[in-house]
Amino acid sequence: MSAKPFDPRALRTDFPALGRVFSDGRRLVYLDNAATTQKPRAVLEATRRYYEESAGNVHRAVHRLAAEATGLYEEARQKIATFIGAPSPKTVVFTHGATEGINIVAHGWARKFLQPGDAVLVTAMEHHSNFIPWQQAAQARGAKLLLAPVLDDGTLDREAFRKLLTPEVKLVALTHASNVLGTINPAAELIREAHAAGACVLLDAAQSAPHLPLDVTALDVDFLVFSGHKLLGPTGIGVLFAKPELLDAMDPLLTGGEMISRVWDDHATWAEPPQKFEAGTPHIAGAIGLGAAVDYLAGIGHAALRQHEQQLTDYALEKLGALPGLKIFGRAPERLGVVSFAVEGLHPHDIAQFCDRDGIAIRAGHMCAQPLLRRLGVPAVSRASFHLYNDTDDVDALAESLLGARKYFHAT
Amino acid sequence: MQLDDLYQEVILDHYRNPRHSAELAEGEALVDEENPLCGDHLKLDAHVADGKLTDVRIHCQGCAICSASASMMAEAVSDQPLDAIRRKAAAFLALLRGESAPNEEELGDLMALRGVAEFPLRVKCATMPWHALEAALKRLAP
Known about the structure:
The complex is a heterodimer of chains A (412) and B (142). Chain A is an alpha/beta fold and 412 residues long. Chain A contains 14 helices and 15 strands. Chain A has two domains: 133 residues, Alpha-Beta Complex (Aspartate Aminotransferase, domain 1), CATH 3.90.1150; 255 residues, Type I PLP-dependent aspartate aminotransferase-like (Major domain) (Aspartate Aminotransferase, domain 2, 3-Layer(aba) Sandwich), CATH 3.40.640.10. By secondary structure, chain B is of the alpha+beta class. Chain B is built from six helices and three strands; from the N terminus they run ααβββαααα. At the A-B interface, α12 and α14 of A face α2 and α3 of B.
């Protein structure tokens, strides 16, 4: 690894969108990375090259383009297997995102194996994508959905989690990091506890994969999902990892071309995983782009990225926390660069609209986590979230804009 | 598009000092609406007497646009005949859809919300109170 100091300003030049200046002369200050990230040139180039040079379909024809496309697609799968510490690329299923990955498991595993009286345990800090599929699967199977509560500091209530982990619980569906609170859950410990209680674990790594090193083998996790677009990659591509025996046991969610072994008039057999779960023509360019994104992140190095984001998050918590009337949700010691807040007397949408005037992109709303926001006692929050290209200037710009918003809406 | 086109002074005034605003207890309101996109919440109660809408009370937990729209609506429809209110609602929703030639005479002060049509993501904030009103009218005078 190079010993170059981490320089977000230099890295910014790798991202064409971050050089954008709007018609009003404002430069883009992008602080909505928990929703989606900007893309480095390496990712854009990789997808463009596929479309310009190698746009054949995968796993079918024998011509050169098809062979190149298949090679690039499977090479991307291998890169991702390495990135998450998977034992084999055969355990890496390309999906359209974390949501599809969770739905594949909810449909093909939970609905197949859950029995009436069984339970699925989630936390109260799940994104709707790791909540509704289990709510639906539990309803369909006469199973229970249990919610492990969150403490006031934004960490999981470990005591309650352990109490809820009864023999009825067959699956724990857990976010690795909260998209609202920033809390990083102690995945390894929780997985151990779940396994000791006889439950499988699905880890939603949509927020963590772009920022933290992942090792599915060391974690011994059963299922893991994430999305490419939050990880500097293209939209419409994501990953489901599952242990080989689980992929074998599960039913496919989508059926059709490409996922079969043999087809008769009245029945069919499935291809081996991962093809079994990849019906139809996949998002080939997306997979190749995600492979390039993973390479880009590896070039940065997780340790340097983590250190930068932690310093920036500490700075933001202090700077924003000192603003009058501003309340931060979530004070977990182990956290990502995700800072949700409320400003007394200001609605999150008005805040976000005002910040947008200043070229600052933040998120406002319920963050697809209504069960959590109900517990926080607010209908909506504002959220700033960081990635490698953000620096303290961005936080300063946000702080200044927030002060301006107070004046604007409450001038007398 | 300037921010001041969205948040005109009259809008900010209604936001800071909402008219016909009241706490409405559980079950007291005629209509209870939530915008699932942002979690904004609006309760509305009213009565009908002699063919006119009376006792309009609104409890709005929303952004400046939603709160101001609710307040301005309450003023515009209070003690008005129901058919006139229906016409006003249709004219307002057409204004927010950006349809040409708004009925300025019909709309009066409500024209201040015209700029919202230029911010597509905020249109629902302004129309939510009027959709609640339409729902209320359906129940009061089916």
